[in-house]
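Example 9 (inverse folding). The structure is encoded as follows.
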């Protein structure tokens, strides 16, 4: 009876051919299942969050600023600006937008702290300019202004701009119907009636400017992504390097193979060593990241000391988390940490697509996934003058929680393994060996 494992090949006196080993199903089982799960999960996670931003839109915050000073029209108790404000809210699809009725000063403050994606502004002379259209005193068309906030990302700003422009256009058509009804038919020609039918012009301006080298508001996202990727990859490099140096794994570079004698060290002490190395190496990688992005490539950035400190702490939190997960899960720790820090974090970051435009599942992930909190902190430093209420305070809070969780979870698991006697390997008798083809 044929044996279905690989043990018989271990006793072969000569080299085994790949074709002989490949026929054994057990060799394929675990890699096939894991690769299939990764492919399906990554596809669902990444594609599921971007397919329908308009259909998933919920409560996008946009300011509605009515500075119209009147006067009120005869027979009415409100200005045309107030009518437009009410019409804008009434005609916007339910739950898609959260219109915030703000003063101009409040709007500017929330724009500068990243709390609103845009604004629709009604000017002080709006009623006067509208009523003048049906009289010889008309000198210009009434105008509404749409303000953008590019610091919140190009897609979020574009969504807010489109919504505000559509709302202004609908308000223009509503006012046009009223003006057309008021204007005497015998005194208006075709051109005038066409003007009265859609009387309002809409201008778009940048409400909160950012630097020209800010990637249209995307440098905060990509900078944060680099912080996470460098910490993730670096953490796994440190993990593999320490294990190879201590003799718990083989070290292969091209055709060269090295195996060191095993150092008798506990899991807890190994994790401590890896975390200490993570702290030291993160100082270097954070500095190099800033030098490459800002000094070499010219990325717009202010508050450089604060940016470095925040970047170091953010990357360190991820790196310590990677070490804790690897210590707890062993060989599959890289896959687990990849899902925790990258696969689940990227689509729920809200940095490219606003959280108000993704399905509810991603909004739930955004409550605790680190990428959202870290990108908000970086964005606050880069675009919003390092204001605490622009996301910087939340970013610091998540960093503190992340570091605490990494330390508690990692050392709790290694102490448990050590006390249970679940040692990694016994000491190797062989000395360091090198083999080359």
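The amino acid assigned to each position is listed next.
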């Amino acid at each position: 009876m044929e044996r279905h494992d690989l043990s018989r090949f271990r006793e072969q006196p000569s080299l085994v051919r790949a074709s002989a080993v490949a026929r054994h199903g057990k060799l394929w089982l675990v890699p096939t299942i894991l690769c299939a799960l990764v492919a399906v999960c990554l596809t669902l996670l990444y594609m599921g969050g971007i397919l329908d931003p308009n259909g998933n839109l919920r409560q996008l915050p946009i300011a509605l600023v009515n500075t119209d000073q009147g006067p009120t029209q005869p027979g009415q108790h409100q200005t045309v600006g107030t009518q437009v404000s009410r019409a804008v809210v009434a005609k916007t699809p339910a739950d898609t937008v959260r219109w915030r009725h703000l003063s101009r000063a409040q709007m500017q403050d929330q724009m500068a702290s990243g709390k609103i994606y845009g604004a629709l502004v009604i000017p002080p002379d709006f009623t006067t300019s509208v009523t003048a259209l049906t009289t010889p005193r008309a000198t210009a068309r009434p105008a509404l202004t749409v303000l953008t906030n590019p610091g919140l990302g190009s897609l979020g700003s574009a969504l807010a701009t489109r919504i505000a422009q559509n709302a202004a256009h609908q308000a223009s058509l509503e006012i046009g119907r009223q003006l057309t009804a008021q204007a005497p038919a015998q005194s208006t020609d075709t051109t005038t009636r066409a003007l009265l039918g859609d009387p309002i012009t809409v201008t778009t301006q940048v409400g909160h400017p950012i630097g020209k080298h800010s990637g249209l508001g995307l440098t905060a996202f990509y900078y944060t992504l680099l912080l996470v990727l460098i910490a993730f990859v670096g953490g796994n490099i440190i993990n593999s390097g320490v294990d190879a140096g201590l003799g718990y794994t083989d070290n292969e570079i091209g055709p060269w193979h090295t195996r060191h004698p095993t150092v008798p060290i506990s899991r807890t002490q190994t994790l401590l060593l890896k975390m200490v190395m993570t702290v030291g190496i993160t100082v270097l990688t954070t500095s190099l990241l800033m030098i490459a992005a800002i000094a070499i490539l010219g990325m717009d950035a202010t508050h450089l000391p604060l940016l470095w400190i925040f970047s170091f702490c953010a990357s360190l939190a991820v790196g310590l988390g990677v070490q804790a997960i690897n210590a707890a899960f062993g060989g599959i720790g890289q896959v687990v940490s990849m899902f925790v820090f990258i696969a689940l974090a990227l689509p729920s970051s809200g940095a490219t697509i606003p959280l108000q435009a993704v399905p509810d599942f991603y909004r739930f992930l955004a409550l605790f996934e680190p990428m959202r909190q870290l990108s908000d902190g970086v964005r606050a430093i880069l675009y919003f003058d390092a204001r605490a209420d622009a996301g910087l305070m939340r970013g610091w809070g998540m960093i503190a929680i992340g570091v605490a969780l990494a330390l508690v979870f990692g050392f709790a698991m290694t102490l448990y393994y050590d006390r249970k006697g679940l040692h990694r390997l016994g000491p190797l008798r062989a000395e360091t060996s090198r083999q080359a083809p």
